[in-house]
Design a protein that fits this description.
The chain has about 500 residues and is α+β, with helices and mostly antiparallel strands. The protein has helices at about 1-20, 25-45, 50-75, 80-85, 170-175, 195-215, 220-230, 240-245, 255-270, 285-300, 305-320, 325-340, 345-350, 350-370, 380-405, 410-420, 420-440, 450-465, 480-500, and strands at about 90-95, 100, 105-120, 120-135, 145-155, 160, 165, 180-190, 405-410, 470-475. The strands form 3 sheets. A 5-stranded mixed β-barrel has the order 1-3-4-8-5. Helix 11 (about 305-320) packs antiparallel against helix 12.
Length: about 500
């Protein structure tokens, strides 16, 4: 019963958040659901034959109402003063609340605006309002700087990503607390270093490491090294990025659960071979938690890093313990915590959606594929890489087709050829970055192993991306088909797991 209650609460909450993300459900609707839930509880009390089912439905309904309320509370309402001057030139004052996103043609700064200046008069806002300031390239702004900027205030709009697919850009920015854009902005004045000192220290530490990589490695190897080690968002070039996307290797160049999993696996390997720690039951968990915390700090406290760390911990736990059903509970609990913190992530964060589905695929499908890949040797982790790649690629395939319509034909061979070298690339990139900080250009010989490994990964991506039919484009399809596809996919997985465990075909409460 406890397991069924857990899933009733989890599924009910997620459905409530998702429904409120798509529909403007009112408070009256929430009270209606609560009333229905109370009626179900009364039925459970009076009719004992179906009491358990009625309780589960009532709990799910109450949890659903909480999900609707949480999403409603997170919905941004806008600021009347800024809304009154949309599409007009305006001067704002505020603080950079995140590390600026440096791109080839612009610098995007998330600013918590505290005041606006119009006609020489300054008007303070009742609470900080999130504004995305789009400044010219090479604008020197750091996290925590207080700035004054002048530009055109606009409301973010959804845009077409190709073949009729629309990206919900306003909701994506709302997830980051941003309600407006200030385009063609000019930074007039600033006051340095007024942000959180711990977050500022972590960002500065990452910048120092990236400067070391730049001193020791040429581009695009330095950009790839920054991506696989500390999740740096620097561009490695539009063409090369598209090549990694085409061959299904994009997860390598961004900070993802996979990258952190590599580090956690290395830490686990060291712990099992360290006298005094190998028999300490919580040693691996404690060290893993410290590593994930460091990754999050190095990213400047980015939610994507926290999500990747949580997914990595769950993935490692699932593979080391072999307890798939408990790992599913841990994944669901992590999803609820992340969505409870920021409910916009469920419906409007593609990265969160892919991370969740990929981790679910890793937990659900990897053991099934491993059973059927006995002909692949375990040497160099080939069987593990093949099984995990197939599991995650199969799980994310419907979502990727729905999001961007790109079908990577050669994803499996591309991953088999590169993933075994990624852990060594990360290790030698770390050495190269530290050497670059200490020795500057004299670190180039020390960085040679990292350069060779990184160039190998880049070459594989480029060569495979140039093969015929490397990627096939799929047209837009209804979300109903997406839902049906996942029902069929995980329904089939459930059948295979029942057969694998020797359970009867009748449904059982195994979770």
């Amino acid at each position: 019963m406890a397991g069924r209650l857990f899933w009733a609460i989890t599924v009910g909450f997620l459905l409530g958040v998702f429904a409120r993300s798509l529909l403007p459900l009112s408070g009256a609707f929430i009270w209606f659901i609560v009333a229905v839930s109370l009626a179900m509880l009364a039925t459970a009390y009076l009719g004992r034959e179906k009491s358990a089912t009625a309780i589960l439905i009532a709990v799910a309904f109450i949890s659903c109402s909480l999900g609707i309320a949480r999403m409603g509370a997170a919905t941004l309402m806008g600021d009347p003063l800024l809304s009154a001057h949309l599409n007009e030139s305006l001067t704002i004052e505020g603080k950079a609340v995140a590390e600026p996103d440096v791109r080839e043609g612009s610098v995007r700064i998330s600013v918590g605006v505290s005041a606006i200046i119009l006609g020489g008069a300054t008007s303070s806002l009742t609470k900080p309002v999130g504004v995305l300031v789009v400044a010219p390239a090479h604008t020197e702004i750091s996290y925590g700087d207080t700035i004054r900027a002048t530009g055109i205030v606009r409301a973010p709009k959804a845009f077409d990503t190709g073949e009729g697919r629309e990206f919900a850009y306003p909701e994506y920015l709302a997830m980051q607390g941003i309600e407006y854009e200030l385009s063609r902005a000019e930074i007039e004045a600033r006051q340095e270093h007024t942000g959180n000192p711990i977050k500022a220290f972590a960002i500065n530490l990452k910048r120092l490491f990236l400067s070391g990589l730049s001193a020791a490695l040429p581009e695009p190897a330095a950009g790839l090294a920054g991506g696989i080690t500390v999740g740096d968002k620097r561009s490695i070039g539009k063409e090369l990025t598209e090549d990694f996307q085409t061959v299904g290797l994009i997860h390598v160049i961004v900070l993802s659960g996979y990258n952190i999993t590599i580090v956690l696996n290395a830490a686990a390997w060291l712990i099992t071979r360290t006298p005094g720690l190998r028999h300490v039951r919580l040693a691996q968990l404690g060290v893993s938690g410290i590593i994930v915390t460091l990754f999050v700090l190095m990213s400047g406290g980015a939610s994507s890093a926290a999500r990747a760390g949580a997914m990595a911990l769950i993935g490692v736990y699932a593979r080391t313990s072999g307890r798939v059903f408990l790992a599913l509970r841990a994944l669901a609990a992590a999803a609820v915590i992340i969505i409870l913190w920021n409910p916009f992530t469920l419906g409007f964060d593609p990265g969160f959606q892919l991370s969740m589905i990929a981790t679910l695929g890793l937990i659900t499908f990897t053991p099934l594929f491993a059973d059927r890949l006995q002909w692949i040797p375990k040497r160099f982790l080939l069987r593990e890489i093949a099984a995990s790649t197939l599991g995650t690629q199969l799980a994310v395939l419907p979502l990727l087709l729905y999001q961007n319509g790109a079908l990577s034909i050669y994803a499996l061979p591309a991953n088999l050829l590169t993933l075994m070298f990624v852990p060594y690339s990360m290790l030698f990139s770390l050495i190269a970055g530290v050497a670059g900080v200490l020795l500057g250009p004299f670190a180039i010989p020390i960085a040679l192993p990292a350069y060779l490994l990184l160039e190998y990964v880049i070459s594989v991506a480029r060569i495979i991306a140039d093969l015929p039919y490397a990627a096939i484009s799929i047209g837009v399809f209804s979300p109903i088909w997406l839902f049906a596809g996942y029902v069929a996919l995980f329904g089939a997985a459930a059948c295979f797991w029942r057969k694998r465990a020797g359970l009867p075909e009748e449904p059982r409460n195994t979770i």
